[in-house]
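Section 5.1 Outputs to date
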Amino acid sequence: MTYLGTLLPLLTTRWKLSDAQAGELFTAQFAGAMSGSLTQGFLAERIGAHRCVPLGFALMAIGTAGVAFGDGLIVGAIALFLTGIGIGWAVPAENWLAGRYSAPEDEARAINVLNAWWCVGAVVGPALIARGLAVMPFEWTLGIVTVVVAAIAVLSWGLTDAQDGELRLSSTADSRRRVRNLALIVSAMLFLYVGTETAFSGWTPTLAARELGLTAADASLAQSAFWASVLVARVLVSFTKLSRWVGMRSLVVGLSSMAAGVALMTVPRNRVGLALGVVLAGIGCATIFPTIIALFQKRAGAGSESWVGIVIAAGSLGASTIPWVVGASAGGLGGLRWSLLAILVVAIAGIAGLLPAMRDGSPSSTTTVS
């Protein structure tokens, strides 16, 4: 559901929006996604995570139909808010179910595979919509998207509850307090990581333009290279023998690669350093998010069902906060490259300091994926 960027030029014209009003559409979708993530655990406790998925897709279908056939900022914002809630309900539940449906030793790999497919969708989906808009009316294109999303909602209703005894049972006996404390640690990790990843990918084109004197079009290729590296690395890790390395070791390697990449990027006026840094950082980022989620679910067991949405919401909060911090601190730190390097050091130090809490001697984690 990453179509908003593709549609924005058309929506701005169709609904006669200013740039400020168009920006409010992103705010509406983000607010919806945060609200959905924060309430997903409450919903999962009462109806099961397996029901959050079809309900989330149903809301996405309703929201997409609203964008397709609505008119004006208010209708569009409401539609995108509903779409965001749907994303916030479905995404944490999908992560949780992917881990719980799999064997304990395959949990991290399963969640990485899921995120690999999301990467593919994020790349292919907007391109397909753009192609549809080139050959069909706006309403028809989004109407087809609505039908597809609604069909997924219907089909996913067949998902079974991962705690109904037919699937593997939780191998932990964590108390609610222990799971809550672990969720707070993971929330801090994802706040730092997702925020830093977003800041890195978002500010990279600006850094490239300023340091190398590139045009906006050429500088944007740096961001494309970053996400292409994430996609390729995630697919390779998910579908090859590299999957056996997914776990605590891959987190350490990923953070190291990310650190090396950003360090290379901050070398003044160095095209090779920038290009290599973007690729290294993308490779490093590929498995960090899904692996943190997998390790959290492994340690927390069944108790993680009501917390996955909250820890993912913490990551979204970081994505909305840390890029702003990078921009706001650039002047005081002597430039954008120094503020990026500073936030990277803080984030990696924070995540590294929290990593020991992800290790455990309980039965649930003695069968590790690392």
